[in-house]
Design a protein that fits this description.
The protein is of the alpha/beta class. It is built from 18 helices and 19 strands. The strands form 3 sheets. Strands 10-19-18-17-16-15-14-11-12-13 form a 10-stranded mixed sheet, with helices on both faces. Strands 4-3-2-5-6-7-9 form a 7-stranded parallel sheet, with helices on one face. It has a two-stranded parallel sheet with strand order 1-8. α8 (258-270) links the parallel β11 and β12 (275-281). α5 (115-122) runs parallel beside α6 and α8 (258-270) packs parallel to α18 (492-503). The longest helix is centred in the first third of the chain and has 20 residues, at 24-43.
């Protein structure tokens, strides 16, 4: 499913008007019809029901006015609240308001001194529709509008927003002070960015996307991940053997973080990889019980980490491997960074770099590596790690997740998995926004499982962007399964054990 900003949607509509010769009034009529179809499907017959519609001065308000007229025709007891300066109506908005008034519809301007009266009136509604701004909002609401939104949010009636809840920036999901808390948001034409990024997603409620009745072409690169991505899973032919599905080398672990190595290695196998060799410091080798993993001890430092004593052994282990996963639990000691950089210089295949492995990716090192080699790398930072890579801070990264991931991916020609809510997966050509997962997955080891899963998908032949995007989606779906009986107390091992059900 494609995802656009409000500005991109306006360009799409403009092209439809100029190239196809469509009338904005016709498009608005289609939008109003689709809105009413959704409302009747979601809430049943609205005949005799009180439907109160908050209408702004732009074309989002015009869509609301069309919906009001069609609801009136269906027998709804429609009441329209006109929000904003009525001298600044768009032509389409003004035309539809005039029609409504000729029909004798109840259309009342909202005045600042009537908030108490409005609270009482809205409290009588069976359904409220927010058509004030849609995608045309950014910044913070004025004091009067903020008071209006607070009143709307106090009312207990179901609330549907058109395109984007008032107070949510459709391009970023940012909320200045307050926003309308919708139960569902009807996205016209395409899903809006502000409705899938937090905090906007929390205000949008359930997103529904409707067709506007004419061909919509958007060359944009953003898509929302869904079950459709499961079709990327390669077929497992009856004559396959373990070598068919690749051999992954996982370089991970230290005296403090042996569990990170174990989780990553196990995730390779749970993710469908054929073979997994786990290289760990010698001092933690005896903490691994015999199982399907091939565990190889390598020389370690006095700190219980990989280091110069293990470098030659690690380079030898690269031979014959199809995929490299490096980083979980290694620690960020300077000697570890040095070894990770040397391994990455020698490795020419697909690679997942996570956690402490990211510490090796300073600008000088990245400049020393060819563009083609970096194109096979997937990095999986959380916001704090992304901030270190960018020389920024986590708050800035979270404030503009899409842009941060996109810029880094374009600059260094890598696939970036910026973990969080939601996780963003970017390459130079495409960006995916994840739709699976839950807060219970914010637990130790969850990222280590993701690293192994993405490596497993690489080992089965997927290209880096597909492997990263599918891995993120499956990881989240497994977490959703594991959290069905409660998200509090969810462990990374629970995610690990549920992946097979998604990948079957």
């Amino acid at each position: 499913m494609q995802v656009v900003t409000g500005a991109e949607m306006q360009l799409i509509e403009k092209e439809a008007f100029t190239k196809l010769g469509l009338s904005p009034l016709v498009v608005m009529e289609n939008a109003g019809s689709r809105i009413v179809e959704v409302l009747t499907r979601e809430y049943g017959s609205l005949s005799g029901k009180r439907v109160h519609i908050l209408v702004g001065t732009g074309n989002n308000g015009g869509d609301g006015l069309v919906a009001a007229r069609q609801l009136l025709a269906l027998g709804a007891r429609t009441k329209v609240y006109l929000v904003g300066n009525q001298q600044k109506l768009t032509p389409e908005n003004a035309a539809n308001l005039q029609i409504l008034r000729k029909l004798g519809a109840d259309c009342q301007p909202v005045k600042g001194g009537q908030i108490g009266k409005l609270r009482f009136s809205l409290g009588l509604a069976d359904l409220i529709i927010d058509a004030i701004f849609g995608t045309g909002f950014s910044g913070s609401l004025s004091g009067e509008l903020e008071s209006l939104v607070n009143v709307v949010n106090e009312v207990k009636a179901p609330l549907a927003a058109i395109d984007c809840p008032t107070g949510v920036n459709a391009a970023s999901g940012e909320v200045g002070t307050v926003a309308v808390q919708a139960d569902l948001t009807i996205n016209l034409g395409f899903l809006k960015v502000g409705c899938v990024l937090y905090p906007g997603q929390a205000y949008a409620g359930r997103n529904i996307v409707v067709d506007l009745g004419f061909p919509l072409v958007h060359p944009g690169k953003r898509r929302l991940l869904s079950d459709d991505s499961l079709a990327w899973l390669p077929e497992r032919k009856p004559w396959s053997h373990k070598g068919t599905f690749g051999h992954t080398l996982v370089v991970a672990g230290s005296r403090e973080y042996a569990g990170a190595a174990s989780l990553s290695g196990q995730a390779v196998l749970r993710g469908g990889g054929g073979l997994a060799t786990l290289a760990v410091p010698h001092s933690i080798y005896d903490r691994f019980r015999p199982d399907e993993l091939i565990v190889v001890p390598v020389g370690d430092t006095a700190n219980g980490t990989i280091g110069v004593p293990s470098l030659q052994e690690l380079l030898e282990l690269l031979e014959g491997k199809d995929v490299l996963a490096i980083g979980p639990g290694l620690t960020r000691l300077p000697e570890v960074v040095q070894v990770v950089q040397e391994i990455l210089r020698k490795w020419h295949g697909p690679c997942v770099i996570d956690a402490d492995g990211l510490g090796a990716l300073d600008g000088d090192f990245l400049e020393s590596v060819s563009d083609g080699k970096r194109s096979r790398w997937i990095i999986t930072p959380h916001p704090g790690e992304m901030a270190r890579l960018l020389g920024s801070d986590a708050a800035q990264v979270n404030a503009d997740r899409l842009q941060m991931a996109d810029e880094y991916a374009r600059k260094w020609n890598m696939t970036v998995v910026l973990k969080g809510a939601p996780t963003i997966i970017s390459s130079r050509e495409h960006t995916y926004i994840n739709s699976s997962g839950n807060p219970g997955m914010a637990t130790a080891g969850s990222g280590d499982v993701l690293t192994g899963l993405i490596a497993a998908l690489l080992s089965q032949g997927l290209e880096p962007l597909q492997a990263a995007a599918l891995g993120v989606y499956v990881h989240g779906k497994a977490g959703d399964l594991a959290g069905q009986k409660g998200q509090r107390g969810l462990r990374a091992g629970d995610i690990l054990t549920r992946m097979q059900e998604i990948l079957s």
